[in-house]
Amino acid sequence: MGVVTGARIAAQSARCSLAVALATVVVTAPAGAQSLRQRFSDLFIFGEGEEPLFLAGSGDPNNPASLQVHGMHFIPSSSAENGTLISLIGDALGQSISSIPIGSTSGSETFRFAGGVPERTSTSAGAIFAERAATLGKDRVLVGISRTSFSFATLRGVNMHDIQLTFTHQNVDFPGCSAAVGGDCSKYGIPGVENDVMDFHLSMDLDVAVTPVYVTYGVTDKIDVSVVLPLVQADFRGSSNAQIRPFGGTTATHYFAGTPQNPVLSASRESIGSAAGLGDVDVRAKVNLRQNVNADVAVLVDARFPTGSTADLLGSGKFSGRVIGIVDSHFGNFSPHINGGYLYHAGDQQNDAVLGTVGFDQLMSPKVTLAADLVSALQVGDSKLVLPGVVTWEAPFRRSLNPTNIPTTRDDVVDGSFGVKIAPARNTILVMNALFPLNRGGLRPNLAYTVGIERTF
User: Fold this and answer.
1) CATH number at residue 299
2) What pTM does this model have?
3) How confident is the prediction for the chain on average, in pLDDT?
């Protein structure tokens, strides 16, 4: 009775700590402060209070209407292709932060009660980015905190410091256009100003630290429930360089400043910002279906709620959930495991994915466990982050242009995970891990470091 009562007291204490954490984790931005999405948009804005890609200096200085018309020809509302390019990068930034995997919330020590006495069922301390089938044991509590730090390095394999974009002119076709210019305005390239383009070089740094605080409670010997509160810190720095390429002639129609005879055809921008707060809260339940000397089998249901700010890139803005089957076995101190399941995204911008994790954990000494895994999420269907297609001009001669060096490809994720768990004291585990990409789908870091500590009561 003493063991069970102590565990229940620990569980109540953990729930109180969780309530305090919920009350303190949200960081509110000062009134009037720009969000990180706005900081990103600033890289495409050339003047105070203007829209992305608006050219305030373009047109005839003696004709204000001309200034407004020509200045609007590249903005996303006029050219859907330009809007798609900008939104793809912005959406990738927000979705990738919320999709970073959170480590296992299974206990490093697992127990079952026999005649009111807890019996340890685990050999090693378990995996780090894979789930184990064993449960904590009735009324036992695991409390943990970890920190994963990384910097995004590539977007579909393209260096984040070398993203090339080419923004194209609106296809102008209004009543009377063909008669006014002496050509068929339905063809792209007529009038001739439609051949002007804007080359963009984009360089970005997005440094992220995710600090999950988690509690797992053994409801019964076969069922665990967990709550994960991810605290997210994101720091953004970016710069852009734009160059307008007029198509022939001795004067320019589109420019950033100056006159048609002496135009300023280049511009640059810098932007910096940071945000911190609660990410997307994760609630999990695991049911152990079978536990014997040959193999353990369990199923885990996981729900992520859109509690993180999408404006500050801290959350996805939509619910997601996953169901995972877990199988692990034990051969002395060697424990292979496999997880397989399905990830559902409620949002229109993220694909569902088939999940798979395979690896092992090995007890190297009584206090040290080595863990290695292959972690994958293979998207279902064609990517919802769609790039604009190749742009083709029909006049004055036919030619084509690819608007970006970002490739059209699947955003599959395959990572390697390698780490150790160290037990400096009874019921306490230190975690150290490195997660590294084995492919380049989506927005990816070169390396993600994780350190953490957890304790079982």
Assistant:
1) 2.40.160.40
2) 0.84
3) 85
